[in-house]
Specification:
single chain; mainly beta; 24 strands; two-stranded antiparallel ribbon
Length: 568
């Protein structure tokens, strides 16, 4: 490099030789071990059975209640075996059964986790000439699954090409794509009780959660009771699972032109598309499906929350809405976005005295999202995927306000114009200004807040650049005004009215209605801030002693917050 005027260091880089190509391979291997109970403070089966036996002696685990509970383990299975005459109801038989549970000490981590190697591979190619350069890569990742019923495969491709059309005109093309295929346990989303605040997750079969919270007295190959239905975690992971497919693609082009020295113009356009498909397969033999059709004995039938009681019949008893088959749920999400940006940059120094830096441009952003959800009742996985559905499933859904499919769309738009300018005289006096004029549809159709200018101005005086004062270093800056569009969920500059299906006691009275989701907020606008900053930095004795002083005044207004209004 050589030293230029004003102390600027100019670095000249070498160009790649024409016709040279390179191929690179990268491999990564990760070995994961099965967790151990030694890392956690969890009771073993002897400790747990001691607690259970104390509970049984105090009347908490008697036959009449435990055998028909929604969830039971060692004792519930024992009472069911006795009731089915598969085990003798004698002190010797009971003692032998409980002793085997006491010394079982099941290692759920060993049963549900694997020692495996996750590996990824990548091949890249670079090539170029005096006029153009290219980069391409392919990669693959394979995760055999640390836990049962979990597996991930991911494939990606990238292409980057730069073409020098002229000495001062270049075109850059970028495209990348990825595909991910994943299998995961079929756990439902968590829900929160609005009264108690308790968080629960129905039919939770997450292997790690199960290993941490399940008694080690249970036999990993036996079936116990959960949701009034037989349950075995190994069988459930095979019978209740999710398949996920995710595609992500992007195409981008950027044109750069330098017509004169110091002036750079650029235009960038990009299109991005993402799509994900999630299929939740709850087969007919899964605990979740069987729970929907467990109607015996009568005590269980009257308490099973997954059964349906017809409100039109005062003498109705709970019945199943899933006599055959399982449940199939599918969620689709799509996103298509367009981005365009044009900008100009001008940097010039005149006579080593006047330094000018200018930057301006505009951008347009557009994002369209589409999502659908569907639940199919009675899909017979073991009978050629033939649906067998009961009309009661739809009748129950109408009466409870639940839906069997949903469709949703959202649209985001933004346009912005921006400018930044800096002028400096010999590096002593500097003034900087920024201006931004933007519009977005986040405020709804309100014209009052659709467009907003934002600006700030600042200045600095570097006294240490002055000849008469070379050892003291103060600086003065800056005055600024900024704005924020506020929380993304706030869009009710006009009233937000949504369609709904109000609850009715019988399906024959069902009707569609409209409700005011959010009242009109005519004052809704951007959050704003006025701020004035004054600063002074002073250094003495070759900066051995430094003093910094700052004073600021900040005024935030038009802030967005939540206010509870009257019910009327």
């Amino acid at each position: 490099g050589v030293r230029g005027a004003n102390g600027v260091i100019i670095i000249t880089t070498k160009k790649g030789r024409a016709g040279v190509s390179r191929i690179n391979y990268t491999g990564e291997f990760t070995y994961r071990m099965i967790p151990s109970y030694n890392e956690f403070n969890i009771m073993n089966s002897q400790d747990q059975m001691a607690v259970y036996e104390e509970m049984r002696k105090k009347g908490w685990l008697n036959l009449a209640e435990t055998a028909n509970r929604s969830e039971s383990g060692v004792y519930g299975r024992m009472y069911n075996l006795i009731s089915a005459s598969l085990m003798e109801n004698t002190p010797e038989a009971i003692t032998g059964y409980l002793r085997s549970a006491e010394y079982r000490n099941t290692d759920w981590f060993q049963a549900l986790f694997n020692n495996n190697i996750m590996h990824s591979h990548s091949v890249s190619l670079t090539s170029g000439t005096e006029k153009s350069s290219y980069y391409a890569s392919l990669s693959a990742l394979y995760d055999p699954g640390w836990t049962k019923t979990s597996k991930v495969s991911r494939y990606t491709a990238n292409l980057n090409a730069t073409y020098n059309i002229l000495d001062n005109l270049t075109l850059n093309l970028i495209s990348n794509a990825s595909y991910r295929k994943q299998k995961a346990p079929g756990t439902l989303s968590s829900t929160t009780d609005a009264v108690t605040g308790t968080v629960k997750r129905d039919f939770d079969i997450n292997p790690y959660s199960y290993a941490m919270n399940t008694s080690r007295t249970l036999d990993k190959d036996a079936y116990y009771t959960r949701n009034y239905a037989p349950f075995n975690i190994l069988h459930e992971l095979d019978a209740n699972y999710m398949d996920l497919d995710v595609v992500d693609t992007k195409f981008q082009a950027e044109l750069k032109w330098s017509p004169v020295e110091g002036l750079d113009l650029s235009a960038l356009g990009a299109v991005k598309y993402q799509a994900s498909i999630q299929e939740h397969n709850i087969t007919e033999s899964s605990n979740q499906s069987v729970a929907y059709r467990t109607v015996e004995p009568t005590t269980v039938r009257d308490n099973n929350p997954f059964l349906y009681t017809d409100p039109d019949n005062p003498y109705a008893v709970p019945v199943t809405v899933l006599p055959k088959g399982g449940i199939y749920e599918r969620t689709d999400n799509k996103m298509l976005s367009y981005d365009f940006r044009a900008s100009a940059t001008y940097n010039k120094t005149f006579n080593n005295t006047h330094i000018i830096n200018l930057y301006g441009g505009m951008s347009v952003n557009k994002i369209d999202r589409h999502n659908t959800w569907f639940r199919g009742w009675g899909l017979q996985y073991d009978m050629g995927m033939e649906p067998y559905y009961d009309y009661l499933a739809f009748k129950q859904g109408m009466e409870s306000g639940s839906k069997y499919y949903t469709i949703g769309d959202s649209f985001y738009r933004e346009v912005a114009f921006f400018f930044n300018g800096t002028y400096s005289y010999k590096g002593r006096y500097t003034i900087n200004g920024t201006y931004r004029y933007e519009g977005t549809n986040k405020m709804g159709k309100s014209r009052k807040a659709r467009w907003l200018p934002t600006w700030n101005i600042s200045g600095a005086w570097n006294v240490h650049e002055e000849k008469f004062f070379s050892h003291v270093q103060p600086a003065l800056s800056h005055l600024s005004l900024t704005a924020d569009r506020g929380p993304s969920y706030v869009t009710n500059s006009l009233a937000v009215i949504k369609a709904s299906t109000p609850w009715r006691p019988t399906s024959g009275d069902t009707e569609t209605g409209l409700k005011v989701s959010s009242l009109e907020n005519a004052q809704l606008t951007y959050e704003k801030k006025h701020e004035l900053n004054l600063g002074l930095d002073v250094g003495f004795v070759n900066n051995r002693i430094n003093l910094a002083f700052d004073w600021y005044k900040r005024n935030n207004f038009d802030l967005i917050g939540t206010v509870t209004t009257q019910g009327i």
